[in-house]
């Protein structure tokens, strides 16, 4: 595995793989099995897998965890290599946002609700960096996790809107054996909050079971998830929402299409997200 820092180095290393032979997995590092599942999928899709590790300042709000975001460069490099990554790109902030940088992607309706409401500017920052990364790597396929469902939809929309020549692939959420969705931010959780946080996956699992038994009313499914999470006294709910999974408009039982149940909940200072897509 080659580790590269600059765009110029990246382009040189990837020159022999031009023409659709590259799969790309962008991450912010502190890698876990959710990330490596995307990389392994990359090895099945292309002869060369490129992963990036970049904690993107543009997508963090002023009161968010940018400076304390967990990092483990050596561990990450080892996990990438084991997962079949051929080139690991770790750009510096100055390389992606040099002095004078001022152009950004402006996202639209998909970025409005859910995390977009609690994190103003977040998805513009995500879309801007993803566009920069896609232009530099020029992959045939880029692989994202459904754990960040709204991010996946925003990226899919941007790729369509700009007619970018890349296929976007969304992969299933990888969970801990007890159900907690894997996340780099789980490292912030104290032992007690780690146990409390299980209510998120438990509530979504129950909603899925109710869906399978025939419950189709979005509000009924949503409010039960909210009640279960609310019953965990220490959970500080940001949102529990039922939305059309593709448009992210408020779910309406009369509009056909898959239903997204999405939650964002704080335990102490740690904000966790999880979701399930039904139908
Ligand atoms: P991050 O490092 O949090 O920016 O995540 C990088 C990529 O990994 C994104 O496409 C995420 O959706 C994906 N990802 C993060 N956690 C998981 C998970 N538990 N299962 C599947 N994909 C994940």
Descriptive overview:
This protein is of the alpha/beta class. The strands form two sheets. Strands 1-4-3-2-5-6 form a six-stranded parallel sheet, with helices on both faces. It has a three-stranded antiparallel sheet with strand order 7-8-9, covered by helices on one side. Strand 2, helix 2 and strand 3 form a beta-alpha-beta unit. The longest helix is centred in the middle third of the chain and has 16 residues. The termini are far apart. The mean pLDDT is 97. Adenosine monophosphate binds next to helix 2 and strand 5.
Compile the SSE list and pairings.
Layout: E1 2-4, H1 7-14, E2 22-27, H2 33-45, E3 48-53, H3 73-82, E4 87-89, H4 93-96, H5 115-118, H6 122-137, E5 141-145, H7 149-161, E6 167-171, H8 191-196, H9 198-212, H10 218-231, E7 235-244, E8 259-267, E9 270-278
Parallel strand pairs: 1-4, 2-3, 2-5, 3-4, 5-6
Antiparallel strand pairs: 7-8, 8-9
Helix pairs in contact: 6-7, 9-10
Bound molecules: adenosine monophosphate (AMP).
Adenosine monophosphate binds next to helix 2 and strand 5.
SSE string, helices as H and strands as E? EHEHEHEHHHEHEHHHEEE
Q: Give the number of helices.
A: 10
Record the strand order, biggest sheet: 1-4-3-2-5-6
- Overall form: globular
Query: What would you call the structural class?
Result: alpha/beta
Mean pLDDT: 97
Quaternary organisation: single chain
The count of β-strands is: 9
Bound molecules: adenosine monophosphate
Rg for CA atoms: 19 Å
Report the biggest beta sheet as strand number plus sense, adding barrel if it closes. 6 strands, parallel
User: Termini distance?
Assistant: 40 Å
Strand content: 15-25%
Contiguous runs where pLDDT drops below 50 for at least 5 residues: none
Helix content: 25-40%
